[in-house]
Write a structure and sequence with these properties.
CATH topology: Lysozyme
Radius of gyration: 16 Å
Distance between the termini: 28 Å
Helix content: 55-70%
Oligomer: single chain
Number of domains: 1
Number of helices: 7
């Protein structure tokens, strides 16, 4: 619980009406589902590393798509670097053109979990349910913060 409170301080408060997509809450939810925020987490029998549990092939896809990222696979243990990898992966695979409709957070999370076509796989639905549950917790935290700050004014 304490880790959740500490990590929740990294949640980005964005305006309700914005023309650009803010993925920070989704990223935070995915990180909490994947590793609880542990940058040293190793999963899938040693095949996934870091706070976002990135596999080598995922990383290769991302750095091939956006060569400006650079780095090495082991850098995926660094949260900021790993977020660049996830965003590049999404820019490559979570697109309206590929999916055939506007992209949702569910699509992004399921692609993160199940690969380029993860948004189609029934096996990624339970993963999305976990991420969605985390997003609801984040929403509740933000709601409490806004309510608390409004009452002080």
């Amino acid at each position: 619980m304490i880790a959740e409170i500490i990590l929740s301080t990294t949640i980005h408060l964005s305006p309700c009406h914005t023309s650009t997509y803010d993925d920070s809450n989704l990223l935070h939810a995915i990180m909490m589902v994947e590793s609880g925020g542990d940058p040293n987490a190793v999963g899938d029998n040693g095949k996934a590393i870091g706070p976002y549990q990135i596999h080598r092939v995922y990383w290769l896809d991302a750095v091939e798509f956006d060569k400006s990222i650079g780095g090495k696979y082991s850098d995926c243990t660094n949260k900021a670097y790993a977020e660049k990898i996830v965003r590049a992966y999404w820019k490559r695979y979570a697109t309206e053109r590929r999916i055939g409709r506007p992209v949702t957070d569910a699509d992004r999370a399921r692609i993160h979990n199940g690969g380029p076509n993860g948004f189609k796989k029934a096996a990624t639905r339970p993963y999305w349910d976990k991420v969605k549950s985390r997003l609801k917790k984040i929403s509740n935290i933000l709601s409490c913060r806004l309510t608390s700050s409004e009452s002080v004014v």
